[in-house]
Design goal:
The chain has 291 residues and is α/β, with parallel strands linked by helices. The chain is built from twelve helices and eleven strands.
Length: 291
């Protein structure tokens, strides 16, 4: 029996030596298969596409949003004049604001409507898009609109280090100043998210952080009727109205463009004066002007 067992063991060893096991055929947990790498690459690509610039980009997850540790109401109370969501309630004024610009599909159409009705608005510009479509940024300034800073690539400020946040603002400023002739005073955080320390930095450097109290929710590619209803339901004196004149490749903002003339007429019929953010807040467009 012992002799037979030895023979069996020797035969098994001989077979193993003749046909070694290929370890690469059994990937470990630490080394994903090529298909795992491909999936990670696709997910990463989608994330970049959905968070770079537009509100059609995936909205921040709830876990991320919880890290914005202070409510807008508290920020306004703690940093009066440096963080705002509306203007004076005693004056029947409203400010139209448009995010995620410039966009060659929609920004020009919005500018056409504003020109037709002789309305001045505030556009919050992404530095990454301003480098691609500078002529639209120049048109905003030329036609009397205010240009604000909306970050370089729609980063979620509350998720950034101090250095990353400051670089988002400075990089965009450097792009916009030669186009509009001033360093924009007004910052709009993507998704409205910002931390107290970031507001403090903005205040120290002459910026004002501007969010909103009326959300058209047009980034959801709504029809014009829904956009109008959303604006009307929370409107009050001093309101800052959030809309978009730029969007992602799958985002349809035609409802925004179609709703805009109706919104302008509605506001005027209600006795509202339509103003820019600096007009509403009694300040200038820029921290400094170019000579």
């Amino acid at each position: 029996m012992k002799r037979q067992s030895r023979i069996v063991i020797l035969l098994v060893l001989a077979l193993l030596l003749a046909n070694p096991i290929d370890a690469s055929a059994y990937p470990s947990e630490a080394e994903p298969t090529p298909s795992d790498h491909a999936a990670a690459s696709v997910d990463s690509s989608r994330t970049m596409q959905s968070t770079e610039q537009y509100n059609s980009y995936a909205r921040p997850r709830k876990k991320q949003r919880k890290q914005a540790v202070m409510s807008w109401i508290t920020l306004e109370k703690r940093y009066p004049g440096a963080f705002v969501t509306h203007g004076p309630r005693s004056v029947r004024r409203a400010a139209l604001t448009f995010d995620d610009v410039p966009d060659p599909r929609y920004t020009g159409k919005v500018l056409d409507v504003l020109a037709r009705y002789n309305v001045r608005a505030t556009f919050f510009v992404l530095g990454s898009l301003a480098t691609r479509y500078p002529q639209l940024v120049r048109r905003m300034e030329r036609e009397g609109h205010t240009v604000g800073n909306h970050s370089y690539n729609h980063a979620v400020f509350s998720q950034l280090t101090a250095e990353q946040y400051q670089r988002q603002i400075a990089r965009t400023d450097a792009i916009l100043a030669p186009l509009v002739g001033y360093s924009p005073r007004y910052i709009r955080p993507p998704y409205g998210e910002i931390r107290p320390a970031q507001v403090q930095w903005a205040k120290r450097n002459g910026y004002v952080v501007v969010n909103w109290d009326v959300d058209s929710v047009d980034w959801r590619s709504l029809r014009s009727r829904s956009v109008i209803i959303n604006v009307r339901k929370t409107l009050q004196p001093g309101s800052i109205i959030l809309q978009h004149a730029g969007g992602g490749s799958t985002q349809d903002l035609s409802g925004t463009v179609e709703a805009l003339p109706v919104i302008i007429r509605m506001l005027r019929n209600k006795g509202y004066e339509l103003v820019t953010i600096p007009e509403m807040l009694g300040s200038s467009d820029g921290r400094w002007q170019q000579r």
